[in-house]
Amino acid sequence: MTNIHRENISKLFHNNEERSILIRINGRTIKGIRTSYAGSPPETLMAIFGSRDFMEISINRGHAAKALKAVPGDEIVLSSN
Protein backbone atom coordinates (compact mmCIF):
# COMPACT_ATOMS: atom_id res chain seq x y z
CA MET A 1 0.00 0.00 0.00
CA THR A 2 1.15 3.54 -0.69
CA ASN A 3 0.23 6.80 0.98
CA ILE A 4 -1.29 8.09 -2.28
CA HIS A 5 -5.03 8.58 -1.92
CA ARG A 6 -7.52 8.53 -4.80
CA GLU A 7 -8.51 12.12 -3.93
CA ASN A 8 -4.90 13.27 -4.44
CA ILE A 9 -4.80 11.62 -7.87
CA SER A 10 -7.98 13.45 -8.87
CA LYS A 11 -6.55 16.78 -7.74
CA LEU A 12 -3.13 16.29 -9.32
CA PHE A 13 -4.42 15.08 -12.65
CA HIS A 14 -7.63 17.13 -12.74
CA ASN A 15 -9.84 14.07 -12.97
CA ASN A 16 -7.99 12.73 -16.03
CA GLU A 17 -8.70 9.15 -16.88
CA GLU A 18 -6.98 6.97 -14.25
CA ARG A 19 -6.08 4.52 -17.00
CA SER A 20 -3.73 7.08 -18.57
CA ILE A 21 -1.61 7.73 -15.47
CA LEU A 22 1.93 6.32 -15.45
CA ILE A 23 3.32 5.02 -12.16
CA ARG A 24 7.08 4.50 -11.87
CA ILE A 25 8.69 2.54 -9.06
CA ASN A 26 12.16 0.98 -8.87
CA GLY A 27 12.79 1.14 -12.61
CA ARG A 28 9.42 -0.30 -13.62
CA THR A 29 6.48 1.53 -15.17
CA ILE A 30 2.82 0.69 -14.66
CA LYS A 31 0.33 2.19 -17.09
CA GLY A 32 -2.96 3.15 -15.54
CA ILE A 33 -4.83 2.24 -12.40
CA ARG A 34 -7.06 -0.81 -12.69
CA THR A 35 -10.49 -1.06 -11.15
CA SER A 36 -10.16 -4.75 -10.16
CA TYR A 37 -7.93 -7.80 -10.34
CA ALA A 38 -10.38 -9.46 -12.72
CA GLY A 39 -9.11 -9.55 -16.26
CA SER A 40 -5.51 -8.98 -15.21
CA PRO A 41 -3.30 -11.90 -16.24
CA PRO A 42 -1.43 -13.74 -13.45
CA GLU A 43 1.95 -12.23 -12.54
CA THR A 44 0.98 -8.84 -14.02
CA LEU A 45 2.28 -5.76 -12.21
CA MET A 46 -0.56 -3.35 -11.63
CA ALA A 47 -1.85 -0.43 -9.57
CA ILE A 48 -5.26 -0.52 -7.93
CA PHE A 49 -7.07 1.44 -5.22
CA GLY A 50 -7.71 -0.55 -2.06
CA SER A 51 -10.79 -0.49 0.11
CA ARG A 52 -9.66 2.71 1.84
CA ASP A 53 -8.91 4.41 -1.51
CA PHE A 54 -5.12 4.30 -1.18
CA MET A 55 -3.14 3.19 -4.21
CA GLU A 56 -1.69 -0.28 -3.98
CA ILE A 57 1.05 -1.66 -6.21
CA SER A 58 0.21 -5.31 -6.75
CA ILE A 59 0.91 -8.38 -8.80
CA ASN A 60 -2.05 -10.55 -9.62
CA ARG A 61 -1.33 -13.85 -7.85
CA GLY A 62 2.15 -12.65 -6.94
CA HIS A 63 4.17 -10.51 -4.54
CA ALA A 64 4.89 -6.99 -5.83
CA ALA A 65 7.33 -5.99 -3.06
CA LYS A 66 9.54 -8.99 -3.83
CA ALA A 67 9.34 -8.54 -7.60
CA LEU A 68 10.20 -4.83 -7.33
CA LYS A 69 12.64 -5.25 -4.44
CA ALA A 70 10.55 -2.50 -2.87
CA VAL A 71 10.77 -1.35 0.72
CA PRO A 72 8.80 1.29 2.64
CA GLY A 73 9.95 4.74 1.59
CA ASP A 74 10.81 3.89 -2.03
CA GLU A 75 9.90 6.72 -4.36
CA ILE A 76 6.85 6.42 -6.58
CA VAL A 77 6.61 8.87 -9.47
CA LEU A 78 3.28 9.67 -11.12
CA SER A 79 2.88 11.32 -14.51
CA SER A 80 0.24 11.57 -17.18
CA ASN A 81 0.48 9.74 -20.45
Describe this structure in words.
The strands form 2 sheets. This protein has a 3-stranded antiparallel sheet, with no helix packed on it. The chain is globular, with a radius of gyration of 12 Å. The mean pLDDT is 89. It has helices at residues 6-12, 64-68; strands spanning 21-25, 28-31, 45-49, 55-59, 76-80. It has 2 helices and 5 strands. The protein has one domain (6-80): Bacterial fluorinating enzyme like (Elongation Factor Tu (Ef-tu), domain 3, Beta Barrel). A hairpin with a 2-residue loop joins strand 1 (21-25) and strand 2. The chain has 81 residues and is an alpha+beta fold. Helix content is 15%, strand content 30%.
The CATH topology is given as Elongation Factor Tu (Ef-tu), domain 3
Classify the oligomer: single chain
Instruction: Estimate what percentage of residues fall within beta strands.
Output: 25-35%
Would you tell me the structural class of the helices and strands? alpha+beta
- Overall geometry: globular
Compute the separation of the termini in Å: 23 Å
Q: CATH superfamily, please?
A: Bacterial fluorinating enzyme like
What is the CATH architecture assignment? Beta Barrel
What is the H-and-E element order?
HEEEEHE
CATH class: Mainly Beta
